[in-house]
Amino acid sequence: MAFFGGQDRGITPDDVHKFEQQLKQLGKKVDIKIYDDAGHAFENPNNKDGYRAADAADAQKRTVDFLAMALKK
Fold it and tell me: Which residues pair with 16 in a beta bridge?
């Protein structure tokens, strides 16, 4: 599970897609979400220019849902 900002200049969406393909080729279960309008550190409320509350809330919900499912097993 990984979350990326589509506007991140350090880790571009092309890099994310390549990473995802490599993981899949290795037989790994992959859950990657790219938030198109978000930049780097979009989940950090201290990032005054880049914090995106709605995207951060979605990423947090996805994380909590994943952990709830994974820890049930």
Answer: none
The pTM of the full predicted model, rounded to 2 decimals, is 0.88
**DSSP string across the chain:** -EEEETT-SSS-HHHHHHHHHHHHHTT----EEEETT--TTTT-TT-TTT--HHHHHHHHHHHHHHHHHHHH-
Report d(CA 18, CA 41) in Å as an integer: 21
Q: Which long-range contacts (CB under 8 A, 24 or more apart) does 68-72 make?
A: none
What is the chain's pLDDT, residue by residue, as a tens digit (73 residues)? 999 999 999 999 999 999 999 999 999 999 999 999 999 999 999 999 999 999 999 999 999 999 998 898 6
Closest to 40 in 3D by CA, of 17, 10, 2 = 10
